Amino acid sequence: MAESKELPGNAAEGQEPVKPADDRVVDVPAEPESPTSYRLRRAPRYRAFGFTGAAIGILIGAVIALSTQVAGDYSEQTILGYFVAIFGLFGALLGCGSAVLLDRRKD
Predict the structure, then answer these.
(1) Beta carbons of 31 and 61 less than 8 angstroms apart
(2) What is the pTM of this model?
(3) 24-44: pLDDT as tens digits
């Protein structure tokens, strides 16, 4: 019969016995030669700039659409929808563009 060797432990209390370690060689790094310095890069959040620009554009488009006279066969809601879509798109583009310019300026 083969005997299994167990290291001392609390196997009787429901815990697994401790198994012997492998014969692997592990490289332990020596003391660091010099402290490592890190540069924290603070980049603008493009999504926040885009959403903020879109929100401002939508607000400006709504104010302009509601403050002008309706001309032609278009209803006030149609003009409002067009202005909100157009100014929202331009606002998002300007917001993302300003984020790109801020990111390039920091480097």
Answers:
(1) no
(2) 0.59
(3) 666 666 666 777 777 777 788
